[in-house]
Fold this protein.
Amino acid sequence: MTTRKITGLIAALLLILVVTLNACGGDDEPTAATTQPTPTAVASAPETADPTASKEKPAPTKVRGSAIGDPAELLTADPRYRKPNRRPLAIMVENHPDSRPQSGLDLADVVYEAPAEYGIPRFLAIYVTREAPALGPVRSARAYYVAWASEYKPVYFHAGGSPTGLSWIKQLKVHAVDALRTNIDGFERTDDRDAPHNLYADTRALRKEIRKDKKFSSRKGTWGGLQFSDKPTVGSAEGQKVRVEYDTGYNVSYAYDERTGVYNRTMLGKPHLDRESKKQLSGAVVIVQTVKARAIEGDALNRLDVDVQDKQPALIFQDGRVIEGFWEKDRRDTPTKYTTKDGQPITLKPGRVWIQIAPKDGSKIDY
């Protein structure tokens, strides 16, 4: 991917362009970003360093199939990742048609997908055991994504955000970096896509930057409410496929591959491929999480309000079986608990987890 470094006056001009385009397109990256190139209270970040532009991908690290005791101990096949102070990176990625295909989602450990305004979905990607040299396009924060991200105690990266989303970052004390308010290493604009669909991140560079700031490096990460085990909960019914169709016409499906033991993801009837690797996105576990959601009354951009503090049905697909249960979140910043219908904790197969958010009024689930 051809990239160019943004510095000085060029950075300011491009940021103005991005904000202008976003305003026209119904997004909400704050205009204040054009006049505050250094970190703010929302984006308390280290000093600027020269960007690293290497696009070479490291070999993916496989998750070891043993039970995870302390979720901060990253039990992978590579001992480098067992350091308890290695923090998750949580990054917002857009799914507007102009942003497809995305880069780097195939290297995430956990991926959430939920609708945003006008039914256009967005991703929240969590990186712990792997690095993504090219990740994006990076987009703005929403409140419900902040609540989900907070479970992992990550550094949360975003490009602007809704007023409520930015407020929740402060309220939940999430360590966050706003790409539009900082000049740290790790973000680049590409010249092969139009703004705002051309902001990309390099998790390797971002991780180097957070090591420079004690606030970012001192906190230990967790796996949130995800409990992995070499003896995962066995589903009571066959769960080879699941399809989630949204009222807007957008749809995704996951189909189990017995040979590889993962669910391959399809979007709008076609395999969802990563832009860099050209591989189909997949997950060892797929969680379909039903939520109550509604348009925010009086919001000119038709943003959504999602109940994150709730208890609702959940479907957990792993090893070709499905577990019908519940998800429950006591507070905005507490881990989501996944339980069977009789209240027993659900343990998951080690590997990538896709969490598909499905509004009760606004989606249909077939499996």
Summary: The chain has five helices and 22 strands. Residues 8-25 form the longest helix (18 residues). The CA atoms of residues 273 and 279 lie 5 Å apart. The radius of gyration is 19 Å.
